[in-house]
Amino acid sequence: MEQHHRGHWGSNLGFLMATIGAAVGLGNIWAFPYKMGMNGGFAFLLVYLVMAVLVGFPIMLTELAIGRKVGGSVLVSYHAVGGGFGTFIGGLAMLSAFLILSFYTVLGAYCVEYVCLNFAELLGVANLSNVSGAQSFADMLTNQPLAVLFTFLVIAACFLIIRGGIKDGIEKFNKVGMPALAIMLVIVIIRAVTLPGAADGIKFMLTPNFEPLKTNFLGVLSAAGGQVFFSLSLAMGITVTYGSYLRKEESLVKNSLIIIISDTCVAFMAGLAVLPAAFALGGENAELAGPKLLFITLQDVFNSMGSFGPVFGILFYLFVTLAAITSTIALIEVLVTFTLDHRRKQGKQSNRTVVVLVICLIIMAEAALVAADGLGSNGLWIPFQDTGRALGGTWLDFMDFISEGVAMPVGALLMIFLVWKIRPSTIREEATAAGRVYPPFLYTFYRFCIYVAAPLGMIMILVGQLQSFFAPLS
Ligand code: PHE
Predict the structure, then answer these.
(1) Which of 53, 256, 420, 439 is most deeply packed, by most CB within 10 A?
(2) CA–CA separation, 70 and 241 (whole Å)
(3) Structure pTM?
(4) pLDDT of residue 3 exceeding 80
(5) Are 37 and 437 in contact (CB under 8 A)?
(6) DSSP 8-state assignment for residue 473
(7) In the structure, which protein residues have their CB atom closer than 6 angstroms to any atom of ligand 1?
(8) What is the model's pLDDT at position 48?
(9) DSSP for 10-26?
(10) What DSSP state is assigned to residue 245?
């Protein structure tokens, strides 16, 4: 396939901003800090870094290499290197992207609702400080028309960005959005760590405790590995798709490392922003993970801050909205690039705007279901509901189970086997395109990861995911 028909990123920096934007998301903000605190603080961070190097790095490098080598959508790229087996892997990745969109957009919508609520409070037309975060969130979940409307707004914003194309839409947006995100994060951290009682939150996150490693080593490994994997947005076609627009002269190894380091730094910094604030208000009894941390505990923190509360509320929820939107754009682009490449192969002309519009409408349909479900608040029927297991808890859990729980880890494992089949040297060839030279130990290390560390890690992650989804609902 001729790459120049599809275009490229305008610059390597633009590619990096977009890919880091895809990686940085809700997982960095509501999962990483909490998992770190629960699994041994600094001890967990060490395990996380090891898993990032042994599993995250080789998989990211492989995805970038396959995408750039073929220069096609995730399906075209995997098919070109792996035939029918490759097509299956590409299909799993697209399925994951599609299903994750059903709830990621709704979570983004809640963030936008909170931006608006805090703004209304600032203008004096809301009365947030007399309402608990729990009540605000419950009202949000049960107001189905409003949830659907805000989900629509999030998807509409993504439509407007993606329609501009890789360079003039996605890259442009991320080049402004990511620095803005970093600035907002720093301001929020400064406010959070200077709150009275903030030190306990920092202690919760950072205190080194090697006990969990001794008592539950495999559990910690699988928690850290799963987090690395989800946080880097691997195995859902994003990295292959974004890589397919990368120029041959750019370094795949350097780019992979920059993406992984940046994503980890943002996760760590998000911890410094959210945990001190949560502890300052609620101590150890506050909800410290997942949607409750983001939408209940932290809103309570803003409520308690007095007249500046809504300002920080707006800033914080804008930050989270941006993080969610840059990931959502990437997920949608996986499907857009697939459709455009598919039609091009059939010799058909496509209008990008029309393709993006149709895909956004289909996503709106599945997201409306998750929005209407309101995290299980509205009595909608859910598959596996009667089993009393986590996967049947809410529509979000169900979609998450198929995507994050099964399709992503299985897809990544199969992709590793695909590299066995096509040989790691194929990936080396792509990484050393345009005359780039790497020290020989790097290839030895890559082979070790692909043949030993990454498959073992992926199996552990898969088992960990299944265990968590089949656990009884608490
Ligand atoms: N990497 C994102 C995060 O950390 C999650 C995500 C996964 C986003 C898959 C898009 C696709 O939140």
Answers:
(1) 256
(2) 10
(3) 0.95
(4) no
(5) no
(6) P
(7) 23, 25-28, 100, 230-231, 233, 236, 327, 331
(8) 95
(9) S-HHHHHHHHHHHH-SH
(10) T
Tell me the three state secondary structure of residue 350.
coil
Cα distances from 96 to residues 89, 271, 332, 336, in angstroms, run 11, 27, 11, 14
Work out the percent of the chain whose per-residue pLDDT is above 90.
80
Q: How many residues in total does the chain contain?
A: 474
Could you list the beta-strand ranges (E) of 151-294.
Answer: none
pLDDT for 357 beyond 60: yes
Largest Cα span, the chain: 64
| Residue 103 CA, ligand 1 centroid: distance in Å | 11
Residue with CA closest to ligand 1 atom 6: 233
Cα 8 vs. chain centroid, distance in angstroms? Answer: 23
Cβ 145 vs Cβ 351: under 8 Å: no
Q: Which residues of 261-295 are buried (b: 16+ CB within 10 A; e: fewer)?
A: ebbbebbbbbbbbbbbbbbbbbeeebbbbebbbbb
Measured CA to CA in angstroms, residue 374 lies from 39, 86, 321 at distances of 30, 36, 18
The span from the CA of 143 to the CA of 61, in Å, is 43
HSE, side-chain direction, 13 A CA sphere, residue 303: 22
Closest ligand 1 atom number to CA of residue 238:
11
The whole-angstrom separation of Cα 144 and Cα 469 is 26
Atom index in ligand 1 nearest the CA of residue 25 equals 12
